[in-house]
Automatic annotation (TrEMBL):
Protein name in the entry: Insertion element protein
SUPFAM superfamilies, sorted: Zinc beta-ribbon
Organism (species): Actinomadura spongiicola
Length: 55
């Protein structure tokens, strides 16, 4: 899996001083002393529906 972008700010206090943790996608905010994990939930490739034309 490729590296994702880092978060811009802490979701709890809004500060921008974030440190990555050892776990993938985990971050620590030293300002409010909280840890959080980001999970990417993306949109997959569009599905192509095979519709039959009614006769």
């Amino acid at each position: 899996m490729s590296e994702r972008m880092a978060p811009f700010y802490c979701p709890y206090c809004g500060e921008e001083n974030l440190e990555p943790r050892a776990e993938h996608g985990s971050w620590f905010c030293p300002d409010c002393l909280r840890s959080f994990t980001l999970k990417f939930i993306g949109v997959g490739a569009p599905r192509t529906a095979s519709k039959e034309i009614p006769r």
